[in-house]
Specification:
By secondary structure, the chain is α+β, with helices and mostly antiparallel strands. It contains 5 helices and 6 strands; from the N terminus they run ααββββααββα. The longest helix has 14 residues.
Amino acid sequence: MRGRRYAPPVCSALDLSSLYSARTIPMSAFSQYDEYLRHIKSKDTAEAFRYLVDASSSIPGYECRPKPHGYIKRNYHYFSDGRSFFAFVINQSSLLWYFRSPKRTHPSLVCSTLSEKFPQVKLLKSGQITVRINTLADAKEILHIAFPWHKPHA
């Protein structure tokens, strides 16, 4: 079929709601999981990382996976309709969360509100907002802000 692009089949007729009611993807479902975890030196950050990856497996409408690029080798992105709207970078003592398109996903979100809950918040020239995540409590809070309608398991 020269000249025609392949389009994957559409599965819109399937009822996927039962997939989101339980853990559907093990925490170590991606090959870099153990490497990323070994890179983290802080126990609190490791706990936050585990939570974000595990809770991400049940967010309807999002595919969550690593997307290394450039000099950033350890990161995790939240894709919807082929676009990455959220991401976090895995560092040794923290995770750096990105609201990649806050004007589109959270139009009323402002840095001053985030600064009340997190010690390090920055508005980048690109319009992205970054938030430093250090603990499990931080991870739970950022996931709640990013996906207020989502109730992660445990």
